[in-house]
Specification:
The complex is a heterodimer of chains A (489) and B (494).
Chain A: E1 10-12, E2 35-44, E3 55-67, E4 70-73, H1 75-78, E5 81-88, E6 95-103, E7 108-113, E8 136-141, E9 150-164, E10 170-177, E11 189-192, E12 195-204, E13 213-217, H2 218-227, E14 241-244, H3 249-254, E15 264-269, E16 284-288, E17 291-292, E18 298-301, E19 304-307, H4 309-313, E20 320-327, E21 330-337, E22 357-360, E23 363-367, H5 370-376, H6 381-388, E24 403-408, E25 425-428, E26 431-432, H7 436-444, E27 449-454, E28 461-464, H8 465-478, E29 485-486
Antiparallel strand pairs in A: 1-12, 2-3, 2-5, 3-4, 4-7, 5-6, 6-7, 8-9, 8-11, 9-10, 10-13, 11-12, 12-13, 14-15, 15-16, 16-17, 16-20, 18-19, 20-21, 22-23, 22-29, 23-24, 25-26, 25-27, 27-28
Chain B: H1 2-19, H2 25-28, E1 37-44, E2 59-68, E3 72-75, E4 83-89, E5 96-105, E6 110-115, E7 128-129, E8 138-144, E9 150-164, E10 171-178, E11 190-194, E12 197-206, E13 211-216, H3 217-228, E14 236-237, E15 240-244, H4 248-253, E16 262-267, H5 272-276, E17 283-287, E18 290-291, E19 297-300, E20 304-307, H6 309-315, E21 321-328, E22 331-338, E23 340-341, E24 360-363, E25 366-370, H7 373-376, H8 383-386, H9 389-396, E26 409-414, E27 429-434, E28 437-438, H10 442-449, E29 456-461, E30 467-471, H11 472-486, E31 492-493
Classes of the chains: A mainly beta (489), B alpha+beta (494).
Chain lengths: 489, 494
């Protein structure tokens, strides 16, 4: 149920570094005293030359105190950060901070300042519930347009599931507001009656739509805070299946549904996911945890019609979901134990990870993930298919990783390898390569020839061991190769 | 050396003839109406592959045909592709006759036309075909002025190679002629002559590089010989893809001692090489005793070092046996191979459909088609990235799918009807079964749909939604309304 959709032209609300050096203003009381400005120094990993440290960059966002030395902000404000500092309008000195927990799938992070003495007297904010449609809210933060705290006001425009663009793969409940939220607002509290009702996190640029900003509502925030109570963030869990409406009267009769408005039809059940082997394509889901599922997939929860996913959204790794289904006309009750479906991560944006690679004879091999695809943007049809349909066509069951020849550092040893760029490695010396470490292991074995075969079964690349060894110092020096491999994330 | 000198002197004679009408006067005298050229106006109409029951608006192409022996008019296949109406026109008198296509072959991009009125060609003289040419030779592209006079553009042959033809079905001998050609009449189908003899037909012109691609006489002769054979077969195909064997490390690994040889990288199922037992990974060293270099070239007596497929596909005719010298697992083998034309009958996705109405079947409002490249090309110039990527992949790599996969049946889109409620957004998904029967063609689907199960048409897919149901009786009842509403001539064309 992860949506492959992306918010088009979505504006990440992180402001490029602009040192906040505002003077203290009187903020002796009010909603905003725990609202802080976060400056991040960032190192963006280099997926094209993965042996390099990466590209230094920076950004600025907002956070707010929610408890003893705990600041809540967006994950995208602090992702890939090498250094973080926190300032407030009351105390413009930079206070070094660190990440305590980060959840990329719901774009939230918890920070702490290194010296807890700071902000000791500051009162944490309290959380409210889901605000009513059309009720007014105020967004606090440090957006573009100045250095001091900014407040904007608007109303709740829509409450719906939305793709979260930070990971690019996850959709959760989000609340659309028309208060102006701009780069730098990210991570800031949106308040109503003195309580936090959301965290501003993304919007559309003015080219696409006007006054469309989104905040992460409190159910998502509470779930995050509960998940990390055990000191570890476990990621959202998922049924890992698709379903479809059952509006068609013929389909309803064929599936044995009496006339009415209940039930959705299961489409794909992804191998490697929680429902694999339990739920089958064609099953009709009638109830989820006792909530009746209507034919468009919605359920009634706290007097609101929400997609049936919302039941799963509020659960944690290891929790169970009961599904009442109809299979070939027979009612059945199924129990799914929830877990994180691993293959999905391949198609999410990844953060705080070092690119993995392996170099042999000037041939650079890398595992493919969303970051790799963004950096290389290959036009290879086979690779694009393998990546795009990795989950939908169950390709991950055959190869947990797609290992490609990502680059060729020209040298006499690899003079005839040019045409193989972005080819997918199938095997090395007869050993199947389903992960990067298997490729590294195959090259680690003594052999006169290293024969690299690619998907599709064309000509192999043959490297002689002698030639690889002769070329090694030459290539390292010529291309300033600081390392020949990194197999750790 | 002698022959070159001889050609030069002929050339000189030809140039002089431009000034002084002489033996070639018929085609060279200024103002004289050419006796072997005809304007060809072809009205063509393509099918809409995404709505296969309709044709796109007709459009006209104009070109120049060359009269050759046997009362045939030679043009490119592209000029008359999907033609609905062809007209011949004498340049000077503007006398017209309708014409029919005697034979069109998109592989070699050639077609021959015949006028409806046999007397139409009276008084005209056919062009003879020239022999082989060399790089550097001059040739003249013939076009027509509005008043019917010949417009000549002199050019020089810059490249002779085996290259891809527009049909994408393979490579054949191709000349490149450097000449500053002007576009006249909206097409570059025009003949090229030398010394009063035809040396080929222009089929493409690269305006930026001022370079014309020419179908040479070697290919034309093969086409004409097939035309005169009892059953036209066209051009045989090896049915394999190969990679050069330049890398010394790879050569040492496979134990290749000889200087040349190529690496077989792909085999087309049911093709000539497949039938002969050639395998991926074989090295081909020689064909009929002609050694191949590392790029797959052989020494052709007429054209020098060119790709060996010229020998197997153009010099040889379908049914000929060629002997391949193969290196496999360190051993040298001699394998006889019978050259056969490509058999696309069981192809998973048809790559070329011209002059044929695409098949379709509409059930309830669900539009089913067979996957084909022309369908994917409906996404425009950038179809490889714009068309549904799963289908693009299956089309491009169909050789890697099980050979008995059959045609890939696609639910193309849905024409909304009362029966399709809830299905309107489905498009471009692959059908696996209908009413429990595997479908490998639209004919299979049509058969399977005749036997609904418990009153339902049950259709299964590879992708989401995996399966759907339609009410069989309701579909029957609504069929006429569906036809009327969407102006469908028929609900199926198989």
């Amino acid at each position: 149920m992860k949506s492959p959709l992306f918010l088009l032209a979505c504006l990440a609300l992180v402001l490029p570094t602009a040192p906040a050096s505002g003077q203290a203003i009187d903020l002796s009381s009010g909603d905003w005293e725990g609202v802080v400005n976060i400056d991040a120094s960032v190192l963006l990993p280099d997926y094209r030359e993965p042996w390099n440290a990466g590209q230094p960059s920076g950004g600025s966002g907002t956070g707010f105190l929610i408890g003893k030395n705990r600041f809540l902000t967006n994950a995208h404000v602090v992702s890939n950060a090498t250094k973080l500092v926190i300032r407030s309008s009351n105390d413009p000195r930079p206070h070094p901070a660190r990440i305590v927990h980060i959840a990329h799938d719901c774009d939230l992070a918890l920070l702490a300042v290194e010296n807890p003495a700071f902000f000791k007297g500051t009162v944490p904010v309290e959380f409210g519930g889901v605000p009513q449609m059309e009720s007014s809210v105020s967004a606090y933060g440090y957006p573009v347009g100045g250095t001091r705290l900014s407040v904007t006001r608007g109303i709740v425009s829509r409450i719906d599931f939305q793709p979260y663009s930070h990971s690019g793969m996850d959709s959760h409940l989000a609340i659309q507001i028309d208060a102006a939220i701009n780069p730098g607002n990210s991570g800031g509290p949106v308040m109503q009656n003195g309580k936090v009702v959301g965290v501003a996190f993304q919007g559309y640029s003015g080219d696409v739509a006007q006054n469309v900003g989104y905040m992460i509502p409190t159910p998502v925030i509470h779930r995050f805070l509960k998940d990390v109570e055990d000191g570890h963030y476990d990621h959202y869990v998922d049924l890992a299946l698709t379903y479809r409406n059952l509006f068609n009267p013929a389909a309803r009769r064929a599936l044995g549904l009496e006339d009415g408005n209940t039930g959705v039809q299961v489409g794909s059940v992804y191998s490697g996911g929680a429902s694999a082997g339990i739920v089958q394509p064609g099953d009709v889901i009638l109830k989820i945890d006792g909530h009746t599922v209507s034919s468009d997939g919605s359920i009634e929860l706290e007097d609101q019609a929400v997609p049936l996913e919302e039941v799963v959204e509020r659960k944690f790794k290891g929790d169970k979901v009961r599904l009442d289904i109809l299979r070939e006309g027979q009612p059945m009750a199924l129990t799914v134990t929830l877990r994180e479906p691993w293959p999905f991560k391949l198609q999410s944006n990844l953060y705080d990870e070092k690119p993995r690679f392996f170099v042999a004879g000037g041939l650079v091999f890398q595992p493919v993930d969303q970051n790799f695809m963004d950096a290389h943007d290959p036009s290879d049809q086979r690779l694009n298919y393998l990546f795009d349909y990795f989950i939908a066509d169950g390709l991950h069951t055959k190869r947990p990783e797609i290992v490609v020849l990502s680059n060729i550092l020209p040298d006499s040893v690899n003079a005839y390898a040019d045409e193989f760029r972005y080819s997918v490695v199938d095997e090395v010396n007869g050993r199947p390569v389903k992960r990067l470490d298997e490729l590294a292991a195959a090259f680690g074995e003594a052999s006169d020839f290293y024969v690299i075969k690619f998907a599709g079964g064309g000509r192999p690349i043959v490297l002689e061991r002698k030639a690889i060894e002769e070329a090694r110092p030459r290539i390292s020096a010529r291309y300033a190769l600081k390392a020949e491999k990194n197999l750790e994330k | 050396m002698k022959s070159i000198l001889f050609l030069r002197s002929l050339c000189l004679a030809f140039l002089m003839a431009l000034a002084v009408p002489s033996a070639f006067a018929g085609d060279t005298a200024p103002g004289a109406a050419p006796k072997f050229l005809l304007r060809v106006n072809s009205t063509n109409q393509l099918y809409e592959f995404s709505k296969p029951w309709i044709k796109k608006p007709p459009f006209s192409k104009r070109g120049i045909g060359a009269l050759i022996d046997g009362g045939r008019i030679l043009v490119t296949a592209e000029l008359v592709a999907n033609s609905t109406f062809i007209e011949l026109e004498k340049p000077a008198t503007v006398e017209k006759s309708t014409a029919t296509v005697e034979r069109v072959d998109y592989d070699c991009n050639l077609a021959v036309l015949r006028p409806a009125d046999p007397d139409f060609l009276q008084g005209m003289q056919p062009l003879a075909l020239n022999g082989p040419l060399q790089v550097g030779d001059e040739a003249t592209i013939l076009q027509l002025e509005p008043n019917g006079d010949i417009a000549r553009t002199l050019g020089r042959i810059t490249t002779i190679s085996v290259s891809g033809y527009p049909s994408e079905s393979g490579a054949l001998l191709l000349f490149k002629l450097s000449a500053p050609l002007q576009q006249r009449d909206g097409s570059f189908t025009v003949p090229v002559v030398r010394e009063g003899r035809l040396i080929g037909m222009v089929m493409r012109y690269d305006v930026r590089n001022q370079s014309a691609d020419i179908v040479p006489t070697a290919v034309i002769r093969h086409f004409l010989a097939e035309l005169d054979s009892p059953a036209y077969q066209g051009f045989a195909r090896l049915g394999l893809a190969f990679a050069p064997l330049r890398d010394p490390q790879l050569r040492r690994y496979i134990g290749l001692q000889e200087p040349g040889g190529i690496y077989v990288s792909d085999i087309t199922p049911r093709g000539s090489a497949d039938a002969a037992g050639i395998k991926k990974g074989d090295a081909i060293l020689a064909v009929d005793g002609l050694p191949l270099d590392q790029d797959g070239n052989y020494e052709d007596p007429d054209y020098g070092r060119i790709l060996f497929s010229h020998f197997t596909n153009t010099i040889k005719h379908p049914g000929a046996i060629v002997r391949l010298k193969i290196l496999r697992d360190g051993k040298t083998l001699e394998i006889p191979l019978s050259m056969q034309v490509a058999n696309r009958e069981n192809a998973i996705s048809e790559t070329q459909i011209s002059d044929t109405a695409p098949k379709y079947l509409i059930l309830g409002g669900l539009v089913f088609i067979e996957l084909s490249r022309p369908y994917l090309k409906e996404w425009g110039n950038k179809w490889t990235s714009g068309a549904p990527q799963r289908l693009v992949y299956f089309d491009a790599f169909q050789n890697e799918l099980p050979p008995d996969r059959g045609r890939m049946i696609i639910l193309s889109h849905v024409l909304p009807t009362p029966d399709t409620l809830g299905y309107e957004d489905l498009e471009n998904i692959v059908v696996t079964k209908v009413n429990g029967h595997a479908v490998k063609s639209l004919a299979d689907l049509s058969e399977a749909a005749k036997n609904p199960v418990d009153g339902f048409q049950k259709i299964e897919f590879e992708e989401d939604p995996k399966l759907l149901f339609l009410d069989a009786a309701s579909i029957e009842a609504n069929a006429e309304e569906l036809k009327r509403h969407y102006a469908l001539p028929a609900l199926e064309r198989l």
